[in-house]
């Protein structure tokens, strides 16, 4: 549990407000994320709607997992997950996609968010259990942080088989504790995702080895500072999730006050400092991911203060 | 062909780079294309004034070859320092960092055979410029980095023991500042802060960064500013005399994390 020093602005309150606003926007605008009629498991454009559906489910599932939101927001989170599940044919699309493409990992990576929220697709589950027991999957040629994404998805969905977490961790950029000034935009996303998956989105801070905790505690302030300066809000918000996933998060009130100030009143968090389109559908396409990140970051930070007074 | 910019500011910038190049040549043992010694020839008063202003600004760095390589100071340079303080005497309105720099110059100058300069050799007030000014909104690591970067000329043995002790206590903040500067590709600032890092390492701070790798990176990516190369050259010589620290490879342990001082 994290405590806030008296007399400082309440990070817990600000983070909870950011999360609630972001969740509200995701919920109100969910119809923009509907799969086009006639969508099949082949998915000509997997990143267009399919991936955002999974991300909405991620945000909803984490709000439900932490269970600290208001009754109305918990209901919105349930509806958001249910909407995405319905769009995916109650898991049938994932099942068919996995059948069609045996080595693809995205059906599991999407399914796991529903599994976290209590959903289950029996045939997909059986299929995934089989596939994740194969040597082929362990030998798949993947980026190390992507391999961790699959490992954590398998762990959450309970289809995992004897994963070597230390080896998976060492293989990542972060696992090497490299020169912190050698980080670039893409590598920064590798770092954030490495932390998300090792800690299962903050549920297991001890999934991050001590030396990586120390490393991140030391260098996160610089990275957040640099990407704040150029208004890369998506990455800033992901780095704030990383902070929230540490055993001893920093939860800098100034970072959170800034994020809250940048977030629009309707809950959308723009991915960067450029103007947001007036067109709702375009705004949804371009800023859905960052708003999901805001919902997750706010939820996890508020959760780290679990048990303390909201007015602290 | 465009006319050369003859503004005093442009002349001063050129003179500073030229003088820094001479010091760099003396430090690295290379012969550069710059005047070998002393001020420009008489008859070019603008140039002479710009040169003396450069002497005032580089200050302690003029003695870097003597302090780090044991090269005796060129008498013409020593005289130029005296002359620079005559032409540009310290002013009560000087900012704290200028006061510290001048005091360091005066101490080193006297210690290396120069005449006394019109500068108090001991602080006249409560160590002006020792710490970042209070009341700013920056986090401490940024405040310390912003405070010390312009004072990199004081990262020389014997230049300012009090400030160096304070910098050593804040070595971690300087590592964060160096990292920020590198990520922003602000290589001149990175060079100044890396020089401080080397100095703190020499004084026993356990480095949070591989300073040698930082210096090489700045040299290769920094765009070739002479003053930045002077900072990295000084830093390399400071590292030569730094106590050996266990490297990450020695133990197989994680690398660039903060560790408590030994």
What do these coordinates show?
The complex is a heterodimer of chains A (312) and B (262). By secondary structure, chain A is an all-alpha fold. Chain A has one domain (11-304): Alpha/alpha barrel (Glycosyltransferase). Chain A has helices at 11-28, 50-66, 71-87, 92-100, 106-116, 122-131, 135-138, 144-157, 165-170, 185-198, 210-229, 233-245, 253-262, 280-304. Chain A is globular. The mean pLDDT of chain A is 94. Chain B is mainly alpha-helical and 262 residues long. Chain B folds into two domains: 1-129, no CATH class; 130-246 and 254-262, no CATH class. In chain B, helix 2 packs across helix 4 (75-87) and helix 8 runs antiparallel to helix 9. Chain B starts with 7 loop residues before the first helix and ends in an 11-residue tail after the last helix. Classes of the chains: A mainly alpha (312), B mainly alpha (262). Chain A binds chain B through residues 176-181, 183, 211-212, 214-215, 218-219, 221-223, 225-226, 229, and chain B through 139, 141-142, 172, 176, 178-180, 182-184, 208-210, 213-214, 217, 248, 253-258.
């Amino acid at each position: 549990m994290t405590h806030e020093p008296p007399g400082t602005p309440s990070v817990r309150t600000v983070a909870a407000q950011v999360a609630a606003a972001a969740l509200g926007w995701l919920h109100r605008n969910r119809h923009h994320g509907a799969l086009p009629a006639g969508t099949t498991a082949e998915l000509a454009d997997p990143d267009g709607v399919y991936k955002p559906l999974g991300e909405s489910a991620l945000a909803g599932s984490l709000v439900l997992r932490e269970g600290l939101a208001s009754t109305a927001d918990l209901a919105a989170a349930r509806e958001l997950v249910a909407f995405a599940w319905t769009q995916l044919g109650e898991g049938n699309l994932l099942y068919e996609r996995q059948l069609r493409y045996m080595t693809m990992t995205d059906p599991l990576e999407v399914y796991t968010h529903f599994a976290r929220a209590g959903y289950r697709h029996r045939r997909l589950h059986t299929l995934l259990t089989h596939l994740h027991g194969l040597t082929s999957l362990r030998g798949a040629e993947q980026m190390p942080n992507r391999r961790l994404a699959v490992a954590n998805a398998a762990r959450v969905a309970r289809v995992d088989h004897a994963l070597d977490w230390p080896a998976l961790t060492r293989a990542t950029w972060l696992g090497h504790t490299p020169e912190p000034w050698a980080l670039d935009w893409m590598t920064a996303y590798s770092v954030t995702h490495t932390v998300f998956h090792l800690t299962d989105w903050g549920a297991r801070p001890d999934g991050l080895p001590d030396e990586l905790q120390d490393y991140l505690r030391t260098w996160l302030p610089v990275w957040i500072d640099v990407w704040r300066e150029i208004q890369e809000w998506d990455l800033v918000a992901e780095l704030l999730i990383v902070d929230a996933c540490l055993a001893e998060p920093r939860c800098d009130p100034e970072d959170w006050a800034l994020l809250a100030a940048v977030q629009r009143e309707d809950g959308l968090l723009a991915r960067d400092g450029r103007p947001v389109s007036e067109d709702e559908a375009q705004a949804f396409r371009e800023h859905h991911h960052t708003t999901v990140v805001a919902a997750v970051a706010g939820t996890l930070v508020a959760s780290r203060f679990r048990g303390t007074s909201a007015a602290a | 062909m465009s006319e050369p910019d003859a503004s005093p500011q442009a002349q001063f910038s050129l003179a500073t780079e030229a003088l820094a190049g001479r010091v760099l040549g003396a430090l690295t043992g290379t012969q550069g294309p710059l005047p070998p010694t002393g001020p420009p020839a008489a008859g070019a008063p603008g140039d002479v004034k710009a040169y003396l202003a450069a002497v005032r600004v580089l200050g302690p760095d003029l003695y870097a070859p003597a302090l780090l390589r044991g090269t005796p100071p060129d008498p013409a340079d020593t005289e130029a320092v005296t002359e620079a303080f005559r032409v540009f005497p310290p002013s009560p309105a000087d900012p704290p960092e200028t006061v510290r720099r001048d005091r360091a110059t005066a101490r080193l100058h006297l210690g290396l055979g120069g005449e006394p300069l019109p500068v108090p050799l001991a602080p006249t007030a409560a160590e002006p410029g020792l710490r970042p000014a209070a009341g700013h909104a920056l986090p401490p690591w940024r405040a310390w980095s912003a405070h010390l970067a312009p004072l990199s000329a004081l990262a020389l043995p014997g230049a300012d023991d009090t400030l160096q002790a304070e910098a050593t206590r804040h070595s971690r903040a300087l590592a964060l500042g160096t990292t920020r500067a590198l990520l922003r590709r602000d290589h001149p600032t990175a060079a100044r802060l890396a020089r401080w890092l080397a100095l703190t390492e020499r004084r026993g701070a356990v480095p949070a960064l591989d300073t040698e790798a930082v210096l090489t990176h700045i040299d290769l990516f920094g765009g070739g500013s002479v003053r930045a190369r002077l900072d990295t050259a000084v830093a390399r010589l400071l590292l030569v005399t730094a106590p050996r620290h266990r490297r990450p490879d020695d133990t197989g342990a994680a690398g660039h994390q903060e560790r408590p001082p030994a």
